[in-house]
Description:
Elements: H1 21-34, H2 38-46, H3 53-60, H4 66-72, E1 81-83, E2 89-91
Antiparallel strand pairs: 1-2
Helix pairs in contact: 1-2
Amino acid sequence: MKYIKPRPKSNGVKADWKVAKQIKELVKQYALYTGYSEVEIVNTFLIELRNDPEFKAWLDGQRNNKRALEYIYAEAAVGDEFIDENQTFKPTP
Length: 93
């Protein structure tokens, strides 16, 4: 018998921002559809911003951005969760 390992504790931080009601409902319904939490859905979609070449070029041109680049482009930290391109939930070990 294989035992289930506990999910790592998230190192997430609480964000305090407002989104349109339409977006909130979209995320809620998408989470219900996929079986993932709303947080997992938002994390999965927003992490894709790293792949925007114009954003990357802009970020590369910013002064004193070494820490930001390291943080943004680092592998997911322990407890950060995302869904990979194959729609597989990937908690980081």
